[in-house]
Write a structure and sequence with these properties.
homodimer; 266 residues; alpha+beta; 7-stranded antiparallel sheet; 12 strands; 21% strand
């Protein structure tokens, strides 16, 4: 999948792009079943909410063939190769569960703030490209983005160790208020299989999910190979140290896997 | 304001009705300025979030002429007189602030659950009619309603004294999941001045507001006079004991007040 000139312009201007229905129902069925199976397990890569519900599964592409294929999928990898103009590697791979009733807040932050401070990533030449595994409604913890906020560079942040179970470099109210006054808020919603990419410096957050609808999103973080991290303060499964450029699999890799293993949408 | 036959049918069926832009910009400017002035004060009728931010102002119609006019406004009073087929009195009057960044969750509940258990209200012949003072977006803590849930009567509930600063009779996850599977969720959004009425047994909730946009809503709770409360366990400013039927003011009462006091939208 390649971005056209208008998409490139829009990304530069607003810092995000949304692709509804980028993966098919069959592909999402496969990913969804695999995610549910993993969420039922207990392993060190699964971080939990204060309530005990799973919050984030890290590095599932290292222990699940299905997610290995996703992390190498051309619909996710190619746009980021294109934007960075070079090969990319997997910096992080997350399944954010935002479980029904228990999914907690993600405070206002920039991803690159953490990658720079904790991982010594030289430049904001890495970003998330996210796949909705569940339908994102306006009310089940939709991700909120502040358009144009990526133009402000890396903003001052405080290390919030208290609000949730997950430490995060977060922005203060005054900064968020100023940025929202300029760019507003967008909260893309859509069917499972929709894809969202956003700049590493784009300010974002998501509220708790108090509904019965889970809101699982996979975040694949790809980094330009020449921009690899230089500090190894976090566990390897949170900030990977294998900087080998990704060679994308075929566009039909997930469909072929599902066919071979007889997994299909109901 | 009178409901037509289709609105009556829809209310019976779904348990809620929404009236966009029911109050004018000038009327909302008056109400908004008055609410902001009150929120800056410190008085026993103002309950606070755990953070200290104002959560709910009770009984402003007893100490503010502007809100006295609103509590007697025909656009709010007449539809409820019509539904109950008799005179109504003010059971409760709230300004729910849902302040920017700090407005906390309202857990899943039925209003009548509290009015019955705490106030000894005989029947669910009371309800809220709410006025948006700020724009309600999908992402600043919009109220979520479960259509048709009012048909299930008064559901078993637990008294949640911990989650927020405000004690509430709340529903468990299994109950909410079942009701949402049947009726879905709606989260009406709209400009300041929009009005929302919903059945006393309609299940609803609202998530925290983590945006810079405040989401003030006024909740006027009117009760059929013959259905007045019988237990006085809560402070008078939370559950009123004056059961005199409301005589509505003129439809232009707020506009006249604003004109007389030279208060206008900017």
């Amino acid at each position: 999948m390649k971005l056209n000139a208008e998409q490139r312009r829009q990304f530069d201007e607003d810092g995000w792009l949304f692709f509804p229905n980028c993966f098919s129902e069959d592909e999402i069925a496969l990913l969804g079943i695999e995610a549910e199976d993993i969420l039922k397990t207990d392993r060190p890569e699964i971080w939990r909410e204060k309530s005990g519900a799973p919050r984030t599964v890290f590095a599932a592409h290292t222990f699940s063939e299905v997610f290995r294929l996703l992390a190498h999928h051309p619909r996710l990898v190619e746009p980021l190769q294109q934007v960075f103009g070079e090969g990319v590697y997997v910096h992080q791979f997350k399944i954010n569960a935002k479980t029904a009733f228990e999914g907690d807040v993600w405070q206002w932050h920039q991803d690159y703030g953490t990658w720079a401070r904790d991982d010594g990533m030289p430049e904001p030449r890495a970003m998330n490209i996210a796949v909705f595994l569940d339908e994102v409604f306006p009310y089940n913890g939709a991700l909120m983005l502040v358009p144009k906020s990526h133009k402000h560079g890396t903003l001052e942040a405080g290390h919030d160790l208290l609000t949730t179970s997950y430490p995060l470099w977060t922005l203060d109210k005054e900064t968020v208020t100023q940025l929202v006054a300029e760019g507003g808020i967008v909260a893309p919603t859509g069917k499972p299989g929709s894809v969202l990419m956003f700049h590493g410096n784009l300010v974002h957050a998501s509220p708790p999910n108090i509904t019965p609808y889970p809101r699982k999103i996979i975040y694949l973080t790809l980094c330009a190979v020449s921009n690899h991290i230089t500090k190894f303060t976090r566990p390897e499964f949170i900030a990977h140290r294998d900087f080998t450029p990704i060679v994308p699999v075929g566009d039909d890799a997930l469909v072929e896997y599902a066919r071979a293993h007889r997994i299909a949408a109901e």
